[in-house]
Structures are given as C-alpha cells and as structure tokens.
Amino acid sequence: GGLMTKFMELRYGVPMVSVSVTHPLIEELVSELKNEKRKFSFLCSHDCIVYMALNALGVVPYTLPDSIETKTPIGVKILFERWRDREGKAWYRAELVYRSTEQIRESSVLTLDNPPKKYNLSFEGVATNEDGMISEADFFGIFDRTLAEYDNLVNEYTEKKLDTAA
User: What is the pTM of this model?
Assistant: First the structure.
C-alpha cells in the first residue's frame, strides 16, 4: 500500500500536471455543482484522476484511516454535499467515501450497520464553519482558483512556445 501511494504521489501529485489533466473534469464539476435543478450527479473516473482532481483543487494532504491505499482506495467516491441554512444560504462539504481494507477483503455488503468509511476533506486556505462546512463563495473560489491556474499555465506555455518560434 505504501509503495502504491508513493508512486501515485510522485506520478500524479505534481500540481502543474494535476491542474492540466483534470481541467475538463473540473469544468464539468463546476457546471454540475452550479446547476440548481440537480439533486444528484454522478461522474465516474479512475482513482488516479480522482487523486489529481483533489490535488488540483488544493486539498490539504491526508491519510485515509482503515485503508492500505491511503489516498484513493478502490471504489473511492468524492462526495460534494450542498446544504442550506434557515436563511437559504448554501454551505458545502467535500468528503471521500470508501470501503475499508477489511470491507474490501471480506467482500462485505455495505449496510447501515456496516457503512462505508467517510473522510472530511479540507482545502488549503479555505475556512470552515463550526459544522465543518464551507461557504458557497469560498467553495466556488476553490474551483475558480484551479481554473485560473490552468489559464495561467496555458498562457505561460503558449507565450514560451511563441517566443522560441520567433
């Protein structure tokens, strides 16, 4: 597990790579999350892409408990939840939902008595309220920051290519 995790961190943990590769996914996530008519959206991807998306979004480094694969175990899901307070203001939470190593090994059915594991994610420079929720402005600021990083990469490397061609 440790070797696999280290390999993933080295191969897919470079911010420039993460921001570039996951750009279409991040755009789609923003589109789905801002669609007020949606009650539920499901996007499927490979564990490496999940890890890169989290890295691109600036997730604070984490180690998942009860899992050999401490970043994105088999079948991992990123769960984005939107809640509204009494005034109608939206608050968000991001969690990883996954099966423990024992649940995978035993091929056990997930039930209310045997639920999946959950891990609350936090993001670099983003505050949460007392319930661990992120304000709507701060939440979408995470995505805006990542999309702006992509635009900066495109501009920087397009300019370098043009400079070397001249």
Answer: 0.86
